[in-house]
Amino acid sequence: MPAYFPLFVNLSGKTVSVFGAGQIAARRVSALLRYGACVTVTAPEIGTKIRELSLELPAKTPGQLLLKEHAYRPGEIEQEHADYVLAATDDHQVNAAIAEECKNKGIPVNNASDSSQCDFYFPALVEREQLVIGVTSTDGNHKKTARFCEKLRRLDDLAPQEEGTSHLHQ
After folding, report:
1. pTM listed for this prediction
2. Helices (H), ranges, 57-141
3. 149 φ/ψ angles, rounded to the nearest 5 degrees
4. pLDDT (tens digit per residue) in 120-145
5. What CA–CA distance (Å, rounded) separates 56 from 53?
6. CB of 110 within 8 A of CB of 89?
7. Closest C-alpha among 24, 14, 22 to residue 118
8. What is the mean pLDDT of residues 61-74?
9. 128 contacts: CB under 8 Å, gap ≥ 6
10. CA-to-CA distance for 18 and 20, rounded, in angstroms?
């Protein structure tokens, strides 16, 4: 498995199409929204967490999250004009078709069900004192990443902090 270079990207105003609306998609959509991305979620059924995210968005960010309740349709990625695409459905074949369409169109894609089809990964995020730390493993071991982040969380619990400066996310 090749090592991925950690690259921090300004997502403010970038369009991200997310296919799928389950737990993985909800975690990723939440992070994308925090960093200013304009997100379109497409799924046959929109999950509760993503619906809640759409209700929590402040009025100053109308249109930041668009929900489309239908299954992926071949060819629709090009119509979306997305800067990035996430394939996070519960169907590995659909995710592979999305990844293939993105590769053919030159759009960076993350296939949640097959890391070999990913142009980029989503790291576990640790945000603290105006720092952002992205953690991933070079061997794809998500449990190792989670354990390391948990160590960072324990350090956070012990360190003196100003009120409201610590936010940890995974």
Report:
1. 0.84
2. 76-80, 92-105
3. -65, -35
4. 988 888 887 777 888 988 887 889 98
5. 5
6. no
7. 24
8. 91
9. 156, 165, 166, 167, 168
10. 6
Cβ pair 109, 84 in contact under 8 A: yes
Paired tokens of 8: 């921090």
Q: What is the pLDDT of residue 59?
A: 61
Q: Which residue has the tokens 């939440």?
A: 30
Tally the residues of the chain: 170
Compute the distance between CA of residue 154 and CA of residue 161 in angstroms, rounded to an integer. 13
Backbone angles phi, psi at 9, to 5 degrees: -125, 140
From residue 131, how far is each of 60, 64, 85, 122, 124 by CA, in Å? Answer: 25, 24, 26, 17, 14
* Strand order, beta sheet including 84-87: 65-69, 38-43, 15-19, 84-87, 109-111
Instruction: Summarize the confidence of residues 63-73 as an average pLDDT.
Output: 94
For 10-50, write each residue's pLDDT tens digit.
Answer: 999 899 999 999 999 999 999 999 999 999 999 999 999 99
Which pair of structure tokens corresponds to residue 89? Answer: 């459905």
Q: E strands, the chain, where?
A: 15-19, 38-43, 65-69, 84-87, 109-111, 124-128, 131-135, 166-168
Rg (CA), the chain: 16
Q: Answer yes or no: are the C-beta atoms of 88 and 20 closer than 8 Å.
A: yes
